[in-house]
Amino acid sequence: xxxxxxxxxxxxxxxxxxxxxxxxxxxxxxxxxxxxxxxxxxxxxxxxxxxxxxxxxxxxxxxxxxxxxxxxxxxxxxxxxxxxxxxxxxxxxxxxxxxxxxxxxxxxxxxxxxxxxxxxxxxxxxxxxxxxxxxxxxxxxxxxxxxxxxxxxxxxxxxxxxxxxxxxxxxxxxxxxxxxxxxxxxxxxxxxxxxxxxxxxxxxxxxxxxxxxxxxxxxxxxxxxxxxxxxxxxxxxxxxxxxxxxxxxxxxxxxxxxxxxxxxxxxxxxxxxxxxxxxxxxxxxxxxxxxxxxxxxxxxxxxxxxxxxxxxxxxxxxxxxxxxxxxxxxxxxxxxxxxxxxxxx
Length: 345
What we know:
Elements: E1 7-10, H1 16-25, H2 36-45, E2 48-56, E3 59-71, E4 75-80, E5 90-91, H3 93-110, E6 114-119, E7 129-130, E8 134-140, H4 145-151, H5 154-166, E9 169-173, H6 177-190, H7 197-207, E10 211-218, E11 221-231, E12 234-242, H8 246-249, H9 251-265, E13 270-277, H10 281-288, E14 293-295, E15 297-302, H11 319-326, H12 330-341
Parallel strand pairs: 4-6, 12-13
Antiparallel strand pairs: 1-2, 2-3, 3-4, 3-5, 6-15, 7-15, 8-13, 8-14, 9-10, 10-11, 11-12
Helix pairs in contact: 2-7, 5-9
């Protein structure tokens, strides 16, 4: 299809269903392309969403979800998609090209430092990019839970069995209270500002049954909890963490096993373990499960910026901040964290 046949529109509430129907039908689209993320950005953070779609003869040909994040500390960026592993334009080639041109124009008009498009595969080899910082872990799972258990490498499988033998129990939570307590403690211990509780509540509200919280307990105490997304035949554990007792009880090991077991029993065929930075603890943890890292390709157009942003905990200039954050009392980290985390998209 020729560029001249296409019209670029901004998504409005009246077209959410059309947008999501396109996402469901487009093989390259992901959970992170869903229209609901526009509402999440607005409701949870107050960020402006610019979700663009290309249309011809009344039919959507491609989509590009974008969010505008402005921060005095972390810069001014237009990202597809903020707070998500993936984004970028999906659809027909001409539609994607037109959408990317529109995104560059929008980035210039907004006066951002840079435009960032998050891809699973390289799309613009000549664009400035981060191609070795992040990887994703995903694999096909078997319908039989026992086959999946045996597929876990021996050392990691022993951790799972210890959690089972300890008597850990997994249960689905209707709310986010226990998730937030476990997750906020976990990220404080890593030296990372936590999101607001409101963010997790909005995710549950916007995505409904496709967003589920699994909490692991031991003798009535919360050990660990994870929020997962369901999309097509995939499960994506996305926000998870454990309380202090999780390490000794192998709570995180049991939690991800229990999630995998439940997923295969409900017909899920792909377990997407999510993004990790190369060289981090989560990277090693996922590799220990036998998952193969796949590089992610985050491509940029620099506007006002002269170099790629480097906002990540491996950057030495954040070391003192991270070390100090780890020592904060939990109530303080839960109060202060959301003011910073809302800009770390």
